[in-house]
Amino acid sequence: MPKTTDGTSPRTATVSYDVAEQLRSPEEMAAYLDAWLAEAPDDARGIARALGDIARAKGMTQVARDTGLSRESLYKALSENGNPSFATVLKVARALGLRLHAAAAAW
């Protein structure tokens, strides 16, 4: 490892990563949610958090207006520890322009 002029190893700078900054189009948002549903279908909190990521990418204020829910309740429901009702999930999906689909599972 390279040394600095004072003989110590340089520190690595880290930056926080926010997936919401990467979700730029409706197609990317749908693909992100679809990946969660496919890879972790039993992780309700993870899927809710993914909806929260997409809502933040679209703009939580706009999503709150479109759902008729408060920003604060959406942030709470769609957080890592949130537990949104199915009605909230449906309202958020609709506000985000996403549709939930059913398909037969491979047994």
What's the short story on this structure?
This protein has 107 residues and is an all-alpha fold.
Note the topology.
Layout lengths: L25 H14 L4 H15 L1 H8 L3 H7 L8 H10 L12
Helix pairs in contact: 1-2, 3-5
Overview of the structural elements:
It is a single chain. The chain has 107 residues and is mainly alpha-helical. The chain has a domain at 24-95. The protein is built from five helices and no strands. The protein has helices at 26-39, 44-58, 60-67, 71-77, 86-95. α1 packs antiparallel against α2 (44-58) and α3 packs across α5. The protein is elongated. The model has no long low-confidence stretch (mean pLDDT 91).
The count of β-strands is 0
Helical content stands at 40-55%
Q: Tell the overall outline.
A: elongated
Residue share in β-strands:
under 5%
Q: Mean of the pLDDT scores?
A: 91
Q: Please report the number of helical segments.
A: 5
Q: Terminal Cα separation, in Å? A: 51 Å
Contiguous runs where pLDDT drops below 50 for at least 5 residues? none
What can be said about the biggest beta sheet? none
Order of helices and strands: HHHHH
Q: Structural class, from helix and strand content?
A: mainly alpha
What does the radius of gyration come to? Answer: 18 Å
